[in-house]
Amino acid sequence: MFKVIQRSVGPASLSLLTFKVYASPKKDSPHKASVKVNELSLYSVPEGQSKYVEETRTPLEESISHLRRYCEPYTSWCQEVYSQTKPRMQSLVQWGLGSYEYLQNAPPGFFPRLGVIGFAGIVGLLLARGSKIKKLVYPPGFMGLAASLYYPQQAIVFVQVSGEKLYDWGLRGYIVVEDLWKENFQKIEYTLII
């Protein structure tokens, strides 16, 4: 056979370096004929036909498969809910970060105004003792009144928009009541005629 002589010697970390290798025949070995590629066992094709046989499932694999089939509707529901709530949560996080940034760099006089508006809400809550309707009306009313003193332009815009919405809701309610009244009144007339 051949004797291999390595010309470079180094640690294992340098094994990626290139180096030259010289091969020389042994002096005492007789000269043999070369071997063809298809005669090598590495490249030979095995005799006979191969056939695929599927392995039987173990009880553990069966139980895991059954568990996966059982849980699949729930996992798909969770994925759907996650995909629907993810954008909302991201917008909520962005809003929170924006609010935090605004509060860190608040304009001068913002916190005293905020304190007065909050105090007006607490006063409204204290004056609304006893009635549930008063508890729903007084605190937001007092807070709105205090906020309108500090922010009159925004209060005017808010009143205009909310007034239009209240008018629209009132009109819709009137139409619904009118339709219900007509349906019931016609039924009463129909039963009186018969």
Concise structural overview:
The chain is mainly alpha-helical and 194 residues long. The protein has helices at 59-104, 110-127, 132-150, 152-193; strands at residues 2-6, 21-25. Among the domains are: 58-105; 109-150, no CATH class; 151-193.
Instruction: Give the overall shape.
Output: elongated
Helical/strand content category = mainly alpha
How many strands, what sense, and barrel or not for the largest sheet?
A: 2 strands, antiparallel
Q: Widest sheet: strand order? A: 1-2
Poorly predicted ranges (pLDDT <50, ≥5 residues)? 4-8
Report the radius of gyration as a whole number of Å. Answer: 43 Å
- Number of continuous helical runs: 4
H/E topology pattern: EEHHHH
Give the beta-strand count: 2
Task: Characterise the protein shown here.
It is found in: Mitochondrion inner membrane; Mitochondrion membrane. Its main location: mitochondrion. Belongs to the apolipoprotein O/MICOS complex subunit Mic27 family. Component of the mitochondrial contact site and cristae organizing system (MICOS) complex. Keywords: Membrane, Mitochondrion, Mitochondrion inner membrane, Transmembrane, Transmembrane helix. With 194 residues, the chain is mostly helical. Among the domains are: 58-105; 109-150, no CATH class; 151-193. It contains four helices and two strands; from the N terminus they run ββαααα. The protein has helices at 59-104, 110-127, 132-150, 152-193; strands at 2-6, 21-25. The protein has a two-stranded antiparallel ribbon. Helix 2 (110-127) runs antiparallel to helix 3 (132-150) and helix 3 runs antiparallel to helix 4. The longest helix has 46 residues, at 59-104. The termini are far apart.
